[in-house]
TrEMBL record, chain A:
Ranges that cross the membrane: 27-50, 57-82, 94-115, 153-178, 198-219
Main location: membrane
ABC transmembrane type-1 domain boundaries: 23-219
Family per record: Belongs to the binding-protein-dependent transport system permease family.
Name of the protein: Tungstate transport system permease protein
Alphabetical keyword list: Membrane, Transmembrane, Transmembrane helix, Transport
Membrane topology note: Multi-pass membrane protein
Taxonomic source organism: Tritonibacter scottomollicae (Epibacterium scottomollicae)
Classification via NCBIfam families: ABC_perm1
GO cellular component, one term: plasma membrane
GO BP term, pick one: transmembrane transport
Automatic annotation (TrEMBL), chain B:
Keywords linked to the UniProt accession: ATP-binding, Nucleotide-binding, Transport
Source organism superkingdom: Bacteria
Boundaries of every ABC transporter domain copy: 25-246
Organism ancestry: Bacteria, Pseudomonadati, Pseudomonadota, Alphaproteobacteria, Rhodobacterales
Keyword Transmembrane helix tagged: no
Gene Ontology molecular function, alphabetical: ATP binding; ATP hydrolysis activity
Keyword presence, Signal: no
Name assigned to this protein: Tungstate transport system ATP-binding protein
Automatic annotation (TrEMBL), chain C:
Protein name per its UniProtKB record: Tungstate transport system substrate-binding protein
UniProt cross-references to PANTHER family, sorted A to Z: EXTRACELLULAR TUNGSTATE BINDING PROTEIN
Domain of life: Bacteria
Keywords: Signal
Organism ancestry: Bacteria, Pseudomonadati, Pseudomonadota, Alphaproteobacteria, Rhodobacterales
Residue ranges annotated for the PBP domain, each copy included: 19-249
Tagged with keyword Signal: yes
UniProt signal peptide: 1-22
């Protein structure tokens, strides 16, 4: 453990180019996936939050169940589609960062949708009567809810990002863990573990943990300043 | 006739409909049950085109519900309501309702007004005048949800006025405010009424009703127990329920 | 000899120069974890890339999965170690030609305590029989990889059906070589591994090689360009130049020169022409 700590420190301070490349790709892939997952998940979550329709209960159950999608299954599904012999093979996306972004987006969009649905439904309970009095359209209602819940939704995005940046199963399959092309933090950790270099694997894990801490701290401070203005 | 005639006629018809008078208000046989419990039982009401009406009555008489039905937020169990010749749901947009507890967006004071102006496609320039009118211009950049109760209600009123309503509905808008804040609200409401907006307010504040109302509708037992000009109602209420209410006795 | 070598090298350089015109090309090699984990590619690929400008991206999975991925056209070159499966792959039209590339050997590693008492044996079938007789723990890849196929064949040779001890003394991890070594060492089990992976493995603890030197432990690697007739997306030129370079004298001597802890990991044996 001590060895891992000093190794982690050494990796970071020595400006190890490979490490920065891997960290950079991890952040790029997972932040992009989080963004796309929000673009898909937030409108879906908002729409379900303000709508009452037959089978809504079943939709909620489905959304919550999809939060537990195993990354390996998502990876496999995306692989089957992006493979050269698959329906989207002509795009040539397999073993590229784009494929990893697609897989992680599919993995976390349900998380963003389900959690934002809860947040937005709570907010809508408060706003609904006022909004109906103002005769707002559906789109106006949804955009207003999304904007007013923005700080709570940051936490939702964070939950998605956390899952994306920490998963290894999906990116391993669709990215291939190719050095200097699709190797990210988690696949690098898996690789070092399989090489038996446990100290390096743990050191990389510590770096990942520090990054996660940093992102969480940033969001938390943003939320706290918002709370002071009663915007949360 | 030719289709051109029809096409030419349709927009005019819509225009005519939009410009139709909301008033007078005619309510006949209005009934409302909540979970099987009757709250309004065959209520009839006629309101004149102008002025300020106070709706009074003991707790549970259905005053707030009546207001929401008139605004088109709640559908009655049965009965007819005609604003001019239109139903409440058709005219919600031409009215504004101010709730007892203002629901303000998690944004700045100014952004709360901007939101409504934008939703209604009205120019943003009127925002400062509105805030000035309710005495909140100096707080335009403040977070709306950090305002005091009185300020928050004034902002809610400014937002209501931003929609340029023909009818302003107030649901115990000053119930939780201190006297000074309540009077500030009253002044704004009086201005609105003077500018030709039809005001209907639910209130328990007898002093406020006296100061604001031209006529008083007293609800009791799910019906209008009394509807008389304010100058008659307060000195000489006709119904025993209104008498008890004004004397501070529990009304059953 | 020296003249011959430099002549060959210049021929290779010349042929590669033409393909290098298409700079910034890249190919995907479907390969085994043993070659990737040992660091061989980190050593070889920069040389090839300097020479041709072709970027080689290695996907390291078990041989079984590598072959399946290549059959799905998700690779330009296949570099694995399961000769029978490789020949089947070519026969089915997925690959153009299969060429022997290099070899090393498998070993059985075990804990210092050596519960089955197989230390120093060079008869692998005998060692496996002793392990199964004493029901000493044995960790198998269980993942249809080249190493796993080899191990299954050796058990059959030894006349033992380890499946009867599955979950008891015979533990199938269903994972890559490194993960299986980690698991095996964690539970004190014998593990069959290729020598390259073992030498470069970093978590040996008290483990050492117990069985080695049997001819049956020979581990042959082959290289196969994926057939463009089957997979039109294949980068034919680049794939061929990579395969050609590997079996050229340049490539072969580069493979021979790769060492970890002063030990040669792979022994080139491409047919000379």
């Amino acid at each position: 453990m001590g060895e891992a700590f000093s190794l982690a420190l050494q990796l970071v301070t020595s400006g190890n180019a490979d490490l920065y490349e891997i960290v950079g790709l991890s952040l790029r892939v997972s932040l992009s996936a989080t963004m796309f997952a929000c673009l898909i998940g937030l409108p879906v979550g908002a729409w379900v939050a303000i709508s009452r329709f037959r089978g809504r209960g079943a939709v909620l159950v489905l959304m919550n169940a999809l939060m537990g999608l195993p990354p390996v299954v998502v990876g496999l599904l995306v692989y089957l589609h992006l493979s050269r012999s698959g329906p989207l093979g002509f795009l040539g996306l397999l073993y590229t960062p784009s494929a990893m972004i697609i897989a992680q987006t599919i993995l976390i969009a349900p998380i963003v949708a389900a959690l934002s649905r809860q947040v937005l439904e709570d907010l809508h309970t408060e706003y609904a009567e006022q909004f109906r009095s103002l005769c707002l359209s559906r789109v106006q209602t949804i955009t207003a809810l999304l904007w007013d819940a923005r700080y709570s939704l940051l936490t939702v995005g964070l939950a998605g990002f956390g899952r994306a940046v920490a998963e290894v199963g999906a990116v391993m399959i669709v990215g291939g863990n190719i050095d200097h092309l699709t190797r990210v933090m988690t696949t690098a950790i898996a690789l070092e573990t399989s090489k038996g270099d446990l100290a390096l694997a743990l050191a990389l894990g510590l770096v990942l943990l520090v990054i996660a801490l940093g992102v969480n701290a940033a969001v938390q401070s943003l939320r706290m300043s918002a709370r002071r203005q009663a915007y949360v | 006739m030719s289709s051109i005639d029809t096409v030419g006629f349709a927009p005019q018809a819509r225009l005519a409909q939009r410009e139709a008078n909301l008033l007078p208000l005619r309510v006949r046989g209005l009934e409302l049950s909540c979970d099987g419990t009757p709250i309004l039982r065959g209520l009839d009401l006629d309101l004149a085109p102008h002025g300020c009406t106070a709706i009074m009555g003991p707790n549970g008489a259905g005053k707030s519900l009546l207001l929401k039905i008139l605004h088109g937020l709640i559908a009655p169990t049965s009965g007819r309501i005609e604003w001019g010749n239109q139903s409440p749901a058709q005219v919600t947009k031409r009215q504004a309702l101010v709730f007892q507890k203002p629901v303000l967006l998690r944004r700045s004071v100014a952004a709360n007004i901007d939101f409504v102006l934008k939703a209604r496609g009205k120019p943003r320039q009127s925002r400062d005048a509105l805030l000035d009118h309710v005495g909140l211009l100096h707080k335009a950049r403040h977070p709306a949800r950090r305002l005091s109760g009185g300020e928050a209600q004034r902002l809610a009123l400014a937002r209501a006025l931003a929609t340029e309503p023909e009818v302003l509905l107030l649901d115990e808008a000053t119930a939780s405010l201190d006297p000074a804040s309540a009077q500030a609200i009253e002044a704004i409401v009086r201005d609105a009424c003077a500018s030709g907006i039809r005001v209907i307010c639910v209130t328990h504040d007898i002093g406020q009703a006296k100061r604001l109302a031209d006529d008083v509708v007293f609800l009791h037992g799910g019906c209008v127990a009394e509807h008389s000009p304010a100058c008659d109602f307060f000195p000489e209420p006709q119904s025993s329920a209104a008498r008890d209410y004004l004397n501070g006795r529990l009304v059953f | 000899m020296k003249l011959n070598q430099s002549f060959g090298a210049s021929i290779v350089a010349l042929t590669l120069a033409t393909s290098a015109i298409a700079a910034n090309q890249s190919i995907i090699v479907q390969s085994t974890t043993s070659t990737a984990n040992s660091g061989l590619y980190d050593y070889l690929l920069p040389m090839f890339q300097d020479k041709t400008g072709i970027q080689v991206n290695v996907v390291a999975v078990g041989t079984g999965q590598a072959i399946k991925n290549a059959q799905n056209c998700d690779g330009d070159v296949l570099l694995v170690h399961a000769k029978a499966s490789e020949e089947k792959f070519v026969e089915a039209g997925f690959g153009t030609t299969r060429t022997d590339l290099m070899y090393n050997d498998f070993v059985i590693v075990g804990p210092a305590a050596d519960p089955a008492n197989v230390g120093g044996m060079d008869d692998v079938q005998g060692a496996l029989s002793k392990i199964s007789d004493s029901e000493a723990l044995f960790a198998s890849r269980g993942d249809d990889s080249g190493t796993h196929k080899k191990e299954v064949a050796l058990w059959a040779d030894a006349g033992v059906d380890p499946a009867t001890g599955s979950g008891e003394w015979y533990r199938e991890t269903g994972s890559g070589m490194g993960a299986t070594l980690n698991a095996g060492i964690g539970m004190g089990a014998y593990v069959m591994t290729d020598r390259a992976t073992w030498i470069s493995f970093g978590n040996k603890q008290d483990y050492e090689i117990k069985v080695e030197g049997d001819d049956d432990l020979f581990n042959q690697y082959g290289v196969i360009p994926v057939n463009p007739a089957q997979c039109p997306s294949v980068n034919v030129e680049a794939a061929k130049s990579f395969a050609d370079w590997l079996i050229s004298e340049d490539g072969q001597s580069a493979i021979a020169a790769y060492e970890v802890s002063d030990q040669q990991l792979f022994f080139p044996n491409a047919p000379k022409n």
